[in-house]
Amino acid sequence: MELEFFGAAGEVTGSCHVVRVGGRQLLLDCGLIQGSREDEARNRDGFPFDPGEIDAVVLSHAHIDHSGRLPLLVREGFRGPIYAHNATRDLCGIMLEDSASLQERDAEYANRKYPNKPPLEPLYTVEDARRVQRMIEGNHYNEKREILSGVTIRFQDAGHIIGSTSVEVWLEENGVSRKLVFSGDLGQYDTPILNDPAVMGEADLVLMESTYGGRRHRERSLTYQEIGEIISEAEAGRGNILIPAFAVGRSQEVLYTLGRNYDEWGMNRWHVFLDSPMAIEASKVYWEYPHLYDDEATKFRRNLHEMPRLKNLHLTASTEESMVINKVRSGAIIIAGSGMCTGGRIRHHLVHNIERRECHVIIVGYQAPHTLGRRLVDGEAEVKIKGKWLQVNARIHTVGGLSAHGDENDLLRWYRGFDNRPPVWLVHGESSAARAMEQKLQNEGGARARVARAGERIDLAGEL
Ligand SMILES: [Zn+2]
After folding, report:
1. CA of 62 to the centre of ligand 1 (A)
2. How many angstroms separate the alpha carbon of residue 49 from the centre of ligand 1?
3. Per residue in 352-367, is it b (16+ CB within 10 Å) or e — as a string?
4. What is the CA(298)–ligand 1 centre distance, in A?
5. In this structure, are residues 259 and 308 in contact, taking their beta carbons and an 8 Å threshold?
6. Which parts of 64-125 fold into alpha helices (H)?
7. Per-position DSSP letters for 410-461, written without gaps between them
8. Cβ distance 253 to 193 under 8 Å?
9. Cβ contacts of residue 69 below 8 Å, gap of 6+?
10. Which CATH fold topology does 220-402 show?
11. Contacts of 436 (CB under 8 A, 6+ apart)
12. Which of 284, 291, 59, 265 is nearest to 182 (CA)?
C-alpha cells in the first residue's frame, strides 16, 4: 500500500498522484503542466508508469491543471473508468475538448512555421478528449462508493469551483486499513455562489494543496470596494476594463459579483462582454446546478427566478462578435480567457487596450511564473504580445480577494476540521508557499506537516 507523488509536488500545476493497493493502481487527478513554453514541454515527457496498468482515476475537479492530461493517459493506453462529480463531468466535456483543439492548433502552427523540422504531433486530439468524456462516471457529493476491491471513495464539496471535491479514500490491504484525504483545490470560505469546503472528520493521512501558503487574501469587502473604485475611475477616464479570467469559476464569480453590485456600481452605464465560448458554456453548467449554491446565491436566484444575468451582458461566442468589441473605446468590461493571458481572446483585447492610459486590467486569479499575466502583475513596463512589444500604460490592478483558492488561514481552518491531527503532505504550491504552509500547520495546527517531493513514495501500511 503506497502513495507516490508524481505531479504538483513542489509546483502548482500538473496535479497527479498514484495510489497502489492490493496490486491495483489508482490515480488522483491527471493534470496538465501549465506555465512557460519550457514548463509545458514537460507534458510530452511521458508518464513514469504504464497508463495501461492504471485501474481507475479519481478526479477532484475540472480545472485543466487537474484533468488536462487525461486525454494523453487514454491515448497511451488507459481504459477507464474515471470517477468525478457530475458537474465536473459536464465541465470536462467543455474544457478537455478546448484543451485538445488548442493542442491541435499549436502543432499545426509549429508545423507550418518550421516546415523543415520533423512534424510535431499534437499532445492529444479532440477525439482523445471525447474518449475521456465517455469514461467519466458522474457522482454526487457525500455518497460512498467502492470503486476497486479494497478502495472506497466519497466526494465532498471543496468550495473551489462548481462540482469541485475533496476526496476521502478508504484503502484496505491484508487486514490493514487506511483513510487518505486528498484536499483537491480548496476554495475560500464565504466565496460567492459556492458552499464552504466540507469538514472531513478524520484521516490517517492528508494530501493538501498549498497554493496560497504564506499569503492572506484581502478581505472580500475591501476587494469589492476596490472594484467599485476601478469602475468609477474607468468611467471618468472613458476607458475599458479587461478582466482575464479562467473560463470556469472566476468568470462566473465575476459576473455574479457585477450582478450583486449592479446598482451600486452603476453597471447600467456599462456593457459587459463574456468573450469566451468556453466561459459561456461553463456558465451554463453553473446555471444547471442550482442545488449546489450557497444560501446567498440561492436566495438571489429565487428572487430573480434564475442566476443573476446582467441586463447588459453580451455573450460573444463567435469570432465576428468578438472582433466587434475591438472597436469599443470606452464603457466595456471585457471578461475573457485565458486566465493567465497565455492564450485566448484576452490577448487581442490587451493589444487593443494595454497602451491606453485610460484602460484598466483587473487580475482576479493566480498567475504562474513566466506567464504574461505574471509579467503584468510584476509591473513590467513593456510586454510582448502576438510578436509585438507594447508599452504597459493601462493600470494593472491585482485584486487578491476573488481567488478561487483559500488563503493560508482558510487552509488552516480546513485542516482544523479534522478530529484527529493527521499527518499532512503538502502539494500544489510553489516551494516557498508550501514551506510557509508547512510552518503554519506545525506551529498553529499542531500537525506533522511536510512538503511532498516529486517521485517520493510513502509506505501507507507503515508508520505515518
Ligand atoms: Zn482548481
Report:
1. 7
2. 24
3. bbbebebbbbbbbbbb
4. 23
5. yes
6. 64-67, 70-75, 86-113
7. HHHHHHHTBSS---EEEESS-HHHHHHHHHHHHHHH---EEE--TT-EEETT
8. yes
9. 14, 16, 30, 31, 32, 43
10. Rossmann fold (3.40.50)
11. 210, 213, 214, 215, 408
12. 59
| pLDDT tens by residue, 348-398 | 999 999 999 999 999 998 888 889 999 999 999 999 999 999 999 999 999
**pTM beyond 0.70:** yes
CA–centroid distance, residue 360 to ligand 1 (Å): 26
Task: Give 383's strand partners.
Answer: 390
CA of 26 to the centre of ligand 1 (A): 20
What are 266's three cell numbers?
452603476
Sorted by where each begins, the domain ranges of the chain are 2-215+404-459, 220-402
| Sheet strands (E) in 174-244 | 176-182, 205-209, 241-244
Residues listed for the chain: 464
Rounded distance from Cα 187 to ligand 1 centre (Å): 9
**Which residues have a Cβ under 8 Å from the Cβ of 413 and sit 6 or more positions away?**
189, 406
Euclidean distance between CA atoms 445 and 413, whole angstroms = 9
Q: Which fold has domain 2-215+404-459?
A: Metallo-beta-lactamase; Chain A (3.60.15)
Q: What is the pLDDT of residues 333-356, one digit of tens each?
A: 999 998 999 988 999 999 999 999
Ligand 1 centroid distance, CA of 199 (Å): 19
C-alpha cell at 33: 503542466
Give how far Cα 67 sits from Cα of 4, 16, 63, 257, 351, Å.
18, 9, 6, 27, 30
> Degrees (nearest 5) of the Cα angle 42, 100, 77?
70
Question: Measured between alpha carbons, how far is 238 from 252 in angstroms, rounded to an integer?
Answer: 25
From the centroid of its chain, how far is CA 128?
A: 21
Q: Are 211 and 429 in contact (CB under 8 A)?
A: yes
Kindly give the distance from the C-alpha atom of residue 64 to the centroid of ligand 1, in angstroms, as a whole number: 8
